Hints:
Oligomer: single chain
Radius of gyration: 24 Å
Number of strands: 0
Strand content: under 5%
Low-confidence stretches: none
Mean pLDDT: 85
Structural class: mainly alpha
Number of helices: 10
Helix content: 55-70%
Largest sheet: none
Amino acid sequence: MDLLLWGVLPYVSIALLVAGTAWRARYDQFGWTTRSSQSHESRLLRIGSPLFHFGMLFVVVGHVVGLLIPMDWTDALGLSDHAYHLLAVSTGAVAGVAAAAGIGILVYRRFTVPAVRRATLRGDHLMYTFLLGAMTLGLMATFLNSTGQTGGYNYRAGISIWFRSLFTLTPDYALMAGAPLVFKLHVLFGLTLFALIPYSRLVHMFSAPLKYLVRPYVVYRRRDPRQQANRPPRRGWERLS
């Protein structure tokens, strides 16, 4: 079971992520969208969306630092293990709470505003389930680990090494066997969420509006009512423009 969960499942998740993203880019470009519902309701969206997106940005950065940077590197920089964990817990907790609050507002909005609820797809329910699950489990793992309820488990000596071993195609799945249950569930929800990205609205995270930096300006002109009144009637094909 450990081999399947921690030695095979990560590669299955990555394969679904890559294949699904390539398929969407090739055959579903018009569906590559956030399916914005701002026209239905904007007050809650203005609050929840920035909280979620900026919170998740710092959560992702924290995961990248915690999983990819070995302990030897931070020790070489003179950052003690205690100082590192204090910094990680403080910043990670703030970012996690902000992201959780943001997604909570967005989910509340989606299920309480009738127009937004009607625009919700079946896949959104599955995506929100695993997104909320992964975030809740992550916050629980942070809280339990910082309060010593996980037996002093150091994820940098376990989960981080296992994660980096995936890139060398030699997954050290035995390291995950000793991780606390809440960490295991957090990883499982995260892997499932990665696999769901191309098949949900989350695929928009791979889109960067770089063309907006170099595109020509869009010029808006106001029609003068006096000129409009003196303008001769438009021909039939011009009325369609």
